């Protein structure tokens, strides 16, 4: 009986010790989560300003309702980011986390070097005129294709005039939620982000255990950049110095590279 009472008396002490150990480890875990989240937000912020998807959202917002453009572009980027993060984390199932972290660090050094070379070759007053012209041409081609499809479907649309009013209301409501313009912007942004430096960076950053925090930070970064693009992206793109943005991005990737290589040697 005495042994049972003594054992019960020791339970609070063991529980307190475990709680103390867990509590002591909590700040390190929280800082790791916060670091992954912040790095993802910063990386997206510097990578997307003046980028192709940024300009698509900016130019489309000048022609269509801003909320429609924002919802389409932001959702497209969010889906791409989630898929990229999950893809990056699956590599850990085949390759040890230490090696994936090390390879991610090397990749960031390569990106940093490439951006540094691009930035140093730019003039101080370099803008985004060439990329903006390219995006405008893509938008014009997409708009022309939509008009041709509407003309082809116009002849057949007369056959459906006898539909009930309820069906018409449902179709009208659905078209407001997912309009052809919304779908067009969604796929333009999705394809524009596919294979982009920021997408590859998310795949690399998501190879560690904090991948959901990386995904969350990248999604938030995309939402912020898309919001900025929709509100006044074209004006901002003409005012900022692409040389400064590019060199800042290069510095950030070098910092990421050092951080990931250091972390890989301490796993």
Structure explained in plain terms:
- This protein is mainly alpha-helical.
- The protein has ten helices and no strands.
- The model is unreliable at 1-26 and 153-164 (pLDDT under 50).
- Residues 1-16 form the signal peptide.
- InterPro entries: GDT1-like, GDT1-like_CS.
List keywords for this structure.
single chain, 267 residues, mainly alpha, 10 helices, 0% strand, globular, disordered N terminus, GDT1-like, transmembrane helix
Order of helices and strands: HHHHHHHHHH
Structure summary, number of beta strands = 0
What global shape is seen? Answer: globular
The CA-CA distance between the termini, in Å, is 47 Å
Overall mean pLDDT stands at 74
What Rg is obtained from the alpha carbons, in whole angstroms?
25 Å
Query: What percent of residues adopt helix (DSSP H or I)?
Result: over 70%
Strand percentage: under 5%
Largest sheet: none
Set down the secondary structure blueprint.
Elements: H1 2-48, H2 52-61, H3 66-90, H4 97-121, H5 129-157, H6 165-177, H7 180-193, H8 197-205, H9 211-239, H10 242-265
Helix pairs in contact: 1-8, 1-9, 1-10, 2-3, 2-5, 2-7, 2-9, 3-7, 3-8, 3-9, 4-8, 4-10
Concise synopsis of the structure shown:
Residues 1-16 form the signal peptide. It is a multi-pass membrane protein. The chain has helices at 2-48, 52-61, 66-90, 97-121, 129-157, 165-177, 180-193, 197-205, 211-239, 242-265.
């Amino acid at each position: 009986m005495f042994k049972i009472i003594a054992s019960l008396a020791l339970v609070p002490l063991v529980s307190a010790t475990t709680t103390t150990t867990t509590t002591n480890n909590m700040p390190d875990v929280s800082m790791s989560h916060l670091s992954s989240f912040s790095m993802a937000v910063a990386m997206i912020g510097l990578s997307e300003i003046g980028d192709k998807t940024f300009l698509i959202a900016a130019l489309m917002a000048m022609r269509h309702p801003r909320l429609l453009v924002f919802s389409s572009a932001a959702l497209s980027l969010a889906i791409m980011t989630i898929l990229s993060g999950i893809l990056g984390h699956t590599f850990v199932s085949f390759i040890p986390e230490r090696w994936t972290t090390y390879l991610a660090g090397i990749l960031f050094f390569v990106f940093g070097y490439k951006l540094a070379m691009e930035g140093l070759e730019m003039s101080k007053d370099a803008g985004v005129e060439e990329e903006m012209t390219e995006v405008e041409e893509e938008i014009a081609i997409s708009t022309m294709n939509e008009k041709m499809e509407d003309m082809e479907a116009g002849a057949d649309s007369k056959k459906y005039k006898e539909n009930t009013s309820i069906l018409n209301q449902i179709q009208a409501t659905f078209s407001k939620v997912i309009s052809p313009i919304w779908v067009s912007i969604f796929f333009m942004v999705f394809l524009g982000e596919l294979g982009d430096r920021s997408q590859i960076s998310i795949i690399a950053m998501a190879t560690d255990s904090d991948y959901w925090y990386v995904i969350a930070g990248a999604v938030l970064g995309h939402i912020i950049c898309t919001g900025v693009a929709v509100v006044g992206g074209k004006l901002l793109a003409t005012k900022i110095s692409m040389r400064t943005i590019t060199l800042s991005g290069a510095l950030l990737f070098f910092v990421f590279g050092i951080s990931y290589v250091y972390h890989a040697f301490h796993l």
